[in-house]
Amino acid sequence: MRKYQSLKPSVLVVGDLMIDHYLWGRTERISPEAPVPVIDVQSESEVLGGAGNVVNNLIALGADVTVASAIGKDENGKRLTKMLKSLGVNTDALIAEPKRRTTRKSRVIASHQQVVRFDSETRQDITKESEDKILAAIQKKLLVTDVILLSDYGKGVLSDRLTRQIIQMARASNIKVLVDPKGKDYSKYSGATLVTPNKKEASEATGINIVDDESLQRAGFKLKNELNLDMAMITLSEEGMAIFDDSFRKFPTVAREVYDVTGAGDTVLSTLGFVLATGGDIDEAAKIANAAAAVVVGKLGSATCSWDEIIAYETTLHESTTEHRIKSREDLSLTIKRLKSEGKKIVFTNGCFDILHLGHVKYLETAKSFGDVLIVGVNSDASVKRLKGESRPVNPEYDRAYLLAALDAVDFVTIFDEDTPYELIKVVEPDILVKGGDYKGKEVVGSDIAKEVRLVDFVDGKSTTSIIKRVKTKR
């Protein structure tokens, strides 16, 4: 999977662009005017939605993206265009229609719960003039396009004529076309490479009530055969997805936590497109798309995920919760990058932690209270021997790391072999570097890298050395 991190396919996204507007707040009372909650709005945000969320996902994966669509010649259209350009998206095929309203969906979120949504949009098909302009722009892009993704939200951009023409042009140029469909009549998607409806959509489009694997297969192969597709896919929510080409295959998924399924279909489409555009086969693409969808449903609102997050998720599926907190320096570097992109405040400390005791636990709990994420560097066995003598450590490095990783206060643990953690601290670049109170008045290694150094007093009488002495005395 790591091979895809260095690839940059050229992807053309065609479909209904929109702005997802969020009002974030909290509610503590019911309105005296009507039986509805009163939302105290704390903040608001705008992100690309609809086909724009497909664009967002592709950018997060590292693709080179061109977008083709029609929007309104209005303020929302101007904002949407600016948002696309700020991401580095090519907008040469973006058409503004004077009488069209750019879609804007406003959602009110209170305490992680969506309370209401209100929309402003035009749902009529785009004009023939707009169709012609989009087709002309796409024709110019075909020589530098690896895959075309059609993201249909039923707002009128992917009209019957435009959709059929795009598929014909792509077929003539041997370019794959992947479709996230809308509606009950899929005939306009005939000849595409792949369609990706969910189970409910597939049931409506085929007239087959999908209740088991037998009905699932009938629906999937009906889509493939009647639409003359290379393959069909039906997404199955928490059950994963099913592929239909020369055979029927299911790919299960496991989402650890589900906060919001908004945009999961966009993530599936964009990930499939990226992998297929760069030479991956459909089975590999499905497995990766499953993992990507599992990542985004663990986030609130239309979300994206990076290759780092997909790789991290795949890794945790094969490890216990404790094991996946123990990171190599390379994996830790990727994790740090993700945490910083999320605005997390990172705390770092280090030590031998030879025999874990109450003093250690209290020290680590205090360190964690200084930020959002606590990363602990643990001296390797060789490092401990150089620092403490040949009789140490009592416990081997992996045992010490595992016990630390099992603590609620600790988020990640990594083992370092140097005498000091300086090189490791250069990788972490912590907001706060924590050391014991015995460093008062002394130079702290890494203080030139961390934004702040804090000293935490140890619990009196609690140390590994004193424990070892007591054990020897009792023999």
Keywords:
Ribokinase-like; 475 residues; alpha/beta; 25% strand; 36% helix; UDP-N-acetylmuramoyl-L-alanine:D-glutamate ligase; 5-stranded parallel beta sheet; Rossmann-like_a/b/a_fold; 15 helices; Bifunc_HldE
Write a brief structural summary.
This is Bifunctional protein HldE. Residues 348-440 form the Cytidyltransferase-like domain. With 475 residues, the protein is α/β, with parallel strands linked by helices.
Question: Would you write up a description of this structure?
Answer:
It is elongated and about 90 Å long. The protein has a nine-stranded mixed β-sheet with strand order 5-4-1-8-9-10-11-12-13, sandwiched between helices. It has a five-stranded parallel β-sheet with strand order 16-15-14-17-18, sandwiched between helices. It has a four-stranded mixed β-sheet with strand order 3-2-6-7. The protein has two domains: 2-316, Ribokinase (UDP-N-acetylmuramoyl-L-alanine:D-glutamate ligase); 323-474, HUPs (Rossmann fold, 3-Layer(aba) Sandwich). It has helices spanning 51-61, 75-86, 128-141, 160-172, 199-206, 213-226, 264-277, 282-296, 307-316, 329-341, 358-368, 381-388, 397-405, 422-428, 464-474; strands at residues 10-15, 17-30, 37-50, 64-72, 90-97, 103-110, 113-120, 147-151, 176-180, 194-195, 231-235, 241-244, 248-251, 346-351, 373-379, 412-416, 432-436, 452-456. 36% of the residues lie in helices and 25% in strands. α7 (264-277) packs antiparallel against α8. It has 475 residues and is α/β, with parallel strands linked by helices. The protein contains 15 helices and 18 strands. Keywords: ATP-binding, Carbohydrate metabolism, Kinase, Multifunctional enzyme, Nucleotide-binding, Nucleotidyltransferase, Transferase. It catalyses: D-glycero-beta-D-manno-heptose 1-phosphate + ATP + H(+) = ADP-D-glycero-beta-D-manno-heptose + diphosphate; D-glycero-beta-D-manno-heptose 7-phosphate + ATP = D-glycero-beta-D-manno-heptose 1,7-bisphosphate + ADP + H(+).
